[in-house]
Amino acid sequence: MTRTAWFHCFAGTAGDMTMGALVHAGADPLVVADIVGRLQIDGYALAFEPVLRCGVAATHAVVAVMHDHDHQHDYDHQHDYEPVHRPYSVIRDLLDAADLPPRVRGRAQHTFRLLAEAEGRMHRIPADLVEFHEVGALDAIIDVVGSCAALESLGIDRIVCSPITVGQGQVHAAHGDLPNPAPAVVDLLAARRAPSRGIADHRELATPTGVALMVALADEFGPMPALTVHSVGYGAGTRDIPGRPNVVQVVIGESIENSPGDGQPVQLLECNVDDVTGEVLAHTIAALLAAGAHDAWATPIVMKKGRPAYTLHALCPVVQIDRLREVMVVETGTLGVRGAVLQRWPQAREERVAMVDGHCIRVKVSGDRVKVEHDDAAAAAVALRLPLRVVLERAAASVQP
Length: 401
Description:
Blueprint: E1 3-8, H1 15-24, H2 29-36, E2 44-53, E3 56-65, E4 86-87, H3 88-97, H4 102-123, E5 131-132, H5 138-154, E6 158-161, E7 164-166, E8 170-173, E9 176-179, H6 183-192, E10 196-198, H7 208-217, E11 220-221, E12 227-236, E13 247-255, E14 264-273, H8 278-290, E15 295-302, E16 308-316, H9 321-332, E17 338-344, E18 350-356, E19 359-366, E20 369-372, H10 374-384, H11 388-397
Parallel strand pairs: 1-6, 6-11, 7-10
Antiparallel strand pairs: 1-13, 2-3, 4-5, 8-9, 12-13, 14-16, 14-17, 15-16, 18-19, 19-20
Helix pairs in contact: 1-5, 1-7, 2-5, 3-4, 4-5, 4-6, 4-7, 6-7, 8-9, 10-11
């Protein structure tokens, strides 16, 4: 069975809320503190406090920063302060130098890499040149590494996340007043095509650090999967909001394996097209996959009057029918989509992170098979100025089936 964590971000998400939820669900706070303590940083205190949020018992993860020695700047994270500017390259090297469990390092590196890429796109600079502001502060680094350490303490192999709730209006950041949700949050959601929903609340409900953790670490998004539930935890935000518990919920359990006669229900969507180019077809397949399809492909057919054409297929979660159908219609201009509910029996797999010269590359392992994520390898190949085949070989060789 697969040890699974499902995060319910109905009130938003943040790094400290994620870490607090996992500790409340059973992660050993001493293990979390020990792993965070392996970072070559000091001047902070990490504590976990039992609190109530709108009457719900929760755990508040508190990172009190007394002194940031790297920048010689005193501040208390509970009050307003000038945010520390810490380059992404410094954080990457900090994680590499620490004696962290491999999965903790890989998850933390991947989280900060996605943050750097989002900031890079926003400021039109390469990810390696990004200087973090709020997410470069010491408490954000501890939130990310602490959350990854808590996942390790619980032995989590698979992560699923609900749609992420965001606010509206404006938020104040290092660059001034920004739209709410913040640009980095929206970019991260878009990069993963992660589901989200907005509510009429002018607070920053979803922070870049919290969203980056979900986007980087979630194997999939959706409702709570079939689980044998072992524990539940609630991670508290700083404020106690009237009428809505300001918490992230996490449910920990073992995934229920499908029996041979009971597969996983999936939706098959199809349409016939005879008036699109091969380039449009390829683009549509890529768009379907980016929007959350399990798989997408095209098969050649012959329509009436001998017209050559294609059938476009997409296999998707049942909850994403409307979204995938819209992609099909918009991209191809088809006048209709048909569908059927099928069953599938996916093989058990594990996603790991390989490191190639400081670049995180996702790798899927199933039995004795190793599959390197092409997009990650291609990005690393460009950054390292290496042939793609070399990066693929090195990433695969670093992971033991």
